[in-house]
Amino acid sequence: MRHMARRTSGRAGPSRSGAGKAALLLHEKVVLSDESIIEIVVWRLPRATPDRPHGFKYRLYYGRRGVCLVRYDNETGKGDHRHVRGREMPYEFKSIAQLRRDFERDVKAAGGKDEEDA
Which domain holds residue 9? Predict the structure, then answer.
């Protein structure tokens, strides 16, 4: 059975609205036929911060029917971390590509599909 998905995607280049603003690098959202949602949002910050020494702000989300099953984010004050089935744990950021691979691995482990299967 093939999954029905609605995919929205946005990729932005460098910010044109000023040097002090974050630039959206990636925004993808997939809604699967089982009502699960995979959403990936990545911003390039104008400069690194203590909470985000790599210079990126991100949120990767997988949930179903309003329940978050997997989330990777780096909100202010917490730094890089992930939530898997209700447990929060630190995350060691290496690259955007590795972040995505790690997220997709956890989505599969939580019973979901990665984007190639969507």
Answer: 5-112
Tell whether 117 is covered by a domain: no
What is this structure's pTM? 0.80
At 19, the amino acid letter reads: A
- Examine residue 76 and state whether it is found in any structural domain, yes or no: yes
C-alpha–C-alpha distance, residues 22 and 24, integer Å? 7
User: Within a domain: residue 105?
Assistant: yes
Q: Are 52 and 74 in contact (CB under 8 A)?
A: yes
pLDDT tens, residue by residue, 6-25: 444 555 444 444 568 999 99
Q: Supply angle C-alpha 108, 79, 70, rounded to 5.
A: 20
d(Cα 98, Cα 92) in Å, to the nearest integer?
10
Tens-digit pLDDT profile for residues 65-91: 999 999 999 988 889 999 998 899 999
Contact 103, 58 (CB under 8 A): no
CB 53 within 8 A of CB 43: no
- The domain tally of the chain equals 1
Please name the amino acid found at residue 75: E
Residue 118 covered by a domain: no
